[in-house]
Amino acid sequence: MSGKDENIKLEISLRQTPVEKPVYNILNHFYKDPFTGEDLIPKKKILSLTLNETVAEKLKAAITRKELVIRDYYDLWFISETDFDFTDKKFLSIFKKKLEEEKYRENYSHNFGLDQKSIELLNKQISTELIPVIRIGETFNINKVFKRFNRIMQMAENNSLK
Backbone phi, then psi, for 94, in 5-degree steps? Predict the structure, then answer.
C-alpha cells in the first residue's frame, strides 16, 4: 500500500492448548485494489481463538513478556476503546488460567507490574517501533494506558472477589 515492501506478522503457536474451543471467523481487512475496489486478500473463514481468549493472551503478554513490546499496550488501548468488558467473569477466568500456565505470581495491578526502567523503555519504543506502523498522524500515550488499566485491574480484582 505504501509502495514499500511491508510485512504482516502472523503467529501460530502450539505451546499452549486454548482454554476455549477455537471458532471460525471471516478474515476481514481493508486491503483493496485501488482501481477495482476488489479485495486483495480473499475473504475466507479461518480458525482462531475466541475474542475473550485473544484478549486474555494480549493482556498476559503485556504483563509477562520478558522483552517488552509497545504494540501490546497499543493493542490493549485499542481494545479498551471498544465495548470489550475486561471485568467479565468469563474473561477473567480465561485470563487467570493464562497466568497460571505461565506460573506468573507477581503483582500486575499497577502499571502491569512494570518498573520505571521498563516504562522508560516503552516510551522510547513509541517513536521507534510504534509510530512507523500506525496510521499517519495517530499518536499514543502509554500513561493513558496505565491509568485506564490500573482502574480496570482494580475493578477486575473487585469483581473476582464477589
Answer: -65, -45
* Nearest-10 Cα torsion for 79, 141, 151, 53: 30
Q: How far apart are CA 112 and CA 145, in angstroms?
A: 10
Nine cell digits for residue 136: 499517519
Q: Tell me: the pLDDT tens digits for 53-104?
A: 999 999 999 999 999 999 999 999 999 999 899 999 999 999 999 999 999 9
Burial class, 28, CB count within 10 angstroms (exposed 0-12 / middle 13-18 / buried 19+): exposed
pTM reported for the whole predicted model: 0.83
Q: How far apart are CA 21 and CA 31, in angstroms?
A: 29
Q: What gap in Å lies between CA 65 and CA 60, rounded to an integer? A: 8
